[in-house]
Amino acid sequence: MQSKIIGSTMPVVEIALEPGDKIVAEPGEFSWMSANIVLRTTTQTAGAKSLLGAIGRAVAGGGLFMTEYTAEGGTGVVAFAAKIPGTIHQFDVAAGRSYMIHRDGFLCATEGGTLAMGFQRSLGAGIFGGYGFIMQKLGGPCTAWIELGGELVTYDLKPGETIQVHPGHVGMFEDTVNFDIVTMRGISNAIFGGAGLFVARLSGPGKVWLQTLTLAGLAHALRPYLGTQSEAVQSGVLGGVAGSLLRGLTNNNS
Question: How far apart are CA 99 and CA 175, in angstroms?
């Protein structure tokens, strides 16, 4: 199996599969593939041995069903593109090791990887789309491809070294890192602080990958440029009225 990551702002990973190789991803997430790639959709993969395990994976941001990609009759190619501007990274996860990744970070992995709920905390209504803060746990042995938003900033924390991060910017960290969501001190932070009350506290030893762009941040930036549903309805009604008037004038003149 060979792979290459193409592009910068909106990258894609292209994976060449030999017969017997297998890639696991969420259903419908592929971008393109060769004609000899065969798909099999099932709940019994990515570490889920039962329906309960599949439900736990789905709650963590993965799919209730997952799709396995294999090649028949020779080498095949399947590609997975980033969903938002950012970066794609390849990680080799050893047996017995794991990474915590943000709920939208998993792109695909080789057979043998496990994907499950790693951390969940309710941070109040409306935050993170109402789902609360969720981290997926990716275990090995496997090779996995992870998507992180915006630019990537990496910290290698020493034992006892701590960094506080807005929860949405936590992209990924090693299983040796101690992690928790804590409340910022001081009532002024609750009233005037733009970052809100909650921060993620990560303590070493271990490596931390932070992302500069979040889905919530991207949605907030685009909101002023997206019309509401009522505006769309009004535009449709007004357009219909204008069209009727123009047709009437044309018919009268003729």
Answer: 5
Domain membership flag for residue 4: no
In a domain, 252, yes or no: no
Q: Which position has the token pair 């034992």?
A: 159
Domain range for 206 is: 11-232
Query: Is-contact 131 193, C-beta < 8 A?
Result: no
pTM: 0.77
Residue 124: which region, alpha, beta or left (left: phi > 0; alpha: psi -120 to 50)?
left
Residue 81 to residues 26, 47, 107, 190, 198, Cα–Cα distance (Å): 13, 24, 8, 38, 31
Q: Going residue by residue through the chain, which has 254 residues, state the pLDDT in tens, using 9 for 90 and above.
A: 999 999 989 999 999 999 999 999 988 889 999 999 999 988 765 445 555 455 554 554 555 588 999 999 999 999 999 999 999 999 999 999 999 999 889 999 999 988 888 776 665 544 444 446 788 899 999 999 999 999 999 999 999 999 999 988 999 999 999 999 888 766 565 555 554 578 899 999 999 999 999 877 888 888 888 865 545 444 454 455 444 444 554 455 54
Q: What is the CATH number of the domain that holds 213?
A: 3.60.160.10
